[in-house]
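Private note to self, pasted from the team thread so I don't lose it. Backbone tokens:
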């Protein structure tokens, strides 16, 4: 597997090759969720750049940044079956932030006004700054993002359009553990007790999707909190938002598409999940 530390090396490598490049931006500690993006990207492009960069500006708390898991060696082992196509890119800060390590400011309207945007101020400016730099430096034809971070995915589509970067944004479904927990690098930080409790998040979203509570969001909110907080978990937020503008609603309208968006703390570890609601 080719490994580069700078986008300059990547550009030099592709200069004499007219090959299509796919990009999969990650923060490492790779799991099967990331691998599903890599697999799809390998099927659709000649080469795939997998970036591993833990971006300081998208973290709200120093402790979250410092405890973020990292294991470059096992990341490479996981990607090994695709090593002929993959370029493993582990930039340092200078490669993505030529000046100060500081976010740029963006306006994504309602897309980033709620959920993660509200509870993690500055988070999306941090993500957008790095994704814009990656798109400019690597110039991929396609870039792959998971629906696990659905709000981020919509923000990136908007960023790509605003900046006219002409990258095809490919969305990939959430990969889950057998017990339904959405795969996440942060799952590594869960205690055995927290890990055992965490599948209740997805299970409750599924129950809510089937239950006859669907017209009343505050009832759904109470039900979610009651189920999830029976265990060692604490709900930070529960929202139902329309999938286009990502504005939370209190009542559902017929024939519109909505998703649940939730954030739950297991001790200090924050877990998010989202599923689309079946139509009412
Ligand atoms: P991260 O390393 O957490 O920043 O994630 C890198 C990319 O992988 C993002 O586009 C995520 O949405 C995606 N991703 C993370 N977990 C999953 C999952 N369980 N299923 C699908 N995609 C995921």
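Design output:
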């Amino acid at each position: 597997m080719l490994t580069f530390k700078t986008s300059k090396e990547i550009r030099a490598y592709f200069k004499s090759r007219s090959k299509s490049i796919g990009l999969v931006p990650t923060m490492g500690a790779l799991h099967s969720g990331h691998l599903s993006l890599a697999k799809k990207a390998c099927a659709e492009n000649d080469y795939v750049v997998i970036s591993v960069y833990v971006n300081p500006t998208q973290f709200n708390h120093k402790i979250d940044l410092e405890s973020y898991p990292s294991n470059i060696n096992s990341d490479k082992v996981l990607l090994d079956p695709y090593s002929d196509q993959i370029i493993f890119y582990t930039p340092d800060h200078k490669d993505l932030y030529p000046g100060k390590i500081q976010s740029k400011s963006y306006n994504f309207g309602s897309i980033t006004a709620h959920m993660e945007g509200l509870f993690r101020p500055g988070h999306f400016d941090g993500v957008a700054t790095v994704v814009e730099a990656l798109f400019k430096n690597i110039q991929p034809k396609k870039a792959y993002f998971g629906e696990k971070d659905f709000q981020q995915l919509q923000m990136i589509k908007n960023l790509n359009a605003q900046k006219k970067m002409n990258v095809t944004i490919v969305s990939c479904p959430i990969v889950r553990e057998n017990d339904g927990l959405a795969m996440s690098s942060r799952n590594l930080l869960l205690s055995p007790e927290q890990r055992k409790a965490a599948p209740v998040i997805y299970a409750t979203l599924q129950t809510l999707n089937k239950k006859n509570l669907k017209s009343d969001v505050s009832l759904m909110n109470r039900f979610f909190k009651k189920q999830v907080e029976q265990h060692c978990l604490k709900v930070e937020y529960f929202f139902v938002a329309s999938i286009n503008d990502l504005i939370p609603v209190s009542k559902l309208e017929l024939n519109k598409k909505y998703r649940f968006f939730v954030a739950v703390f297991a001790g200090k570890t924050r877990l998010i999940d989202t599923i689309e609601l079946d139509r009412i």
